[in-house]
Amino acid sequence: MADVEFRLPKLGMSVVEGTILEWLVAEGDDVSAGQPMLTVEMDKADSELPAPVAGTVVQLVVPEGDTIDVGELLAVIRTADA
């Protein structure tokens, strides 16, 4: 097992922060790589962010409504070792 940190990506040149609008998954949910995990508002545009890897969501770090900086931890996903 390995834990993967999912951090808020930089989606544009001037983007420095994002607001979590809605989590589309819950702790304990299995996700596939590319599956939408949350909706975030960045620079007045809403975007769905996909899971970077397949695995099980073990922790959602940021609650809905909170604003965080690019690079901050959003969630932790546990993957199975091959």
Report on the structure:
The protein is mainly beta and 82 residues long. It has a single domain (2-79), classed as RNA polymerase II/Efflux pump adaptor protein, barrel-sandwich hybrid domain (OB fold (Dihydrolipoamide Acetyltransferase, E2P), Beta Barrel), CATH 2.40.50.100. It has no helices and eight strands. It has strands at residues 2-7, 17-23, 30-31, 36-42, 45-50, 55-60, 67-69, 73-79. It has a four-stranded antiparallel beta sheet, with no helix packed on it. Strands 5-4-2-7 form a four-stranded antiparallel beta sheet, with no helix packed on it. β4 and β5 (45-50) form a beta hairpin. The termini are close together.
Blueprint (SSEs and pairs):
Layout: E1 2-7, E2 17-23, E3 30-31, E4 36-42, E5 45-50, E6 55-60, E7 67-69, E8 73-79
Antiparallel strand pairs: 1-8, 2-4, 2-7, 3-6, 4-5, 6-8
Tag the structure with descriptive keywords:
8 strands; 54% strand; four-stranded antiparallel beta sheet; 82 residues; mainly beta
Low-confidence stretches: none
Strand content: over 45%
What is the third-level CATH name, the topology? OB fold (Dihydrolipoamide Acetyltransferase, E2P)
- Average pLDDT confidence is 94
Cα-based radius of gyration, to the nearest Å:
12 Å
Question: How many DSSP-defined strands?
Answer: 8
